[in-house]
Amino acid sequence: MEPDFELLECFNEATDQCVITKTCSLKSVLFSARNNFLATLDQHTIADAVKKPAQALPGFKSIPVVHG
Predict the structure, then answer these.
(1) Rounded CA gap, 60 and 35, in Å?
(2) Cα 53–40–48 angle (5° rounding)?
(3) Residue spans of alpha helices (H) in 1-68
(4) What count of other Cβ atoms lies within 10 Å of the Cβ of residue 19?
């Protein structure tokens, strides 16, 4: 994963040069969305996603599957 999830310039106070940072309400909405996104990912592992690979294979017919 990426080292940070700075969706907007204003997410990084050290480099923020946005002129509307102090009055913008979008930052709080996206900050919350980012936190919820990461919290959801924290509830799962890659192993969870591939527990039943045989069920997923029909959807990947164009991708060669190497067993072994």
Answers:
(1) 31
(2) 20
(3) 26-42, 46-49, 53-56
(4) 7
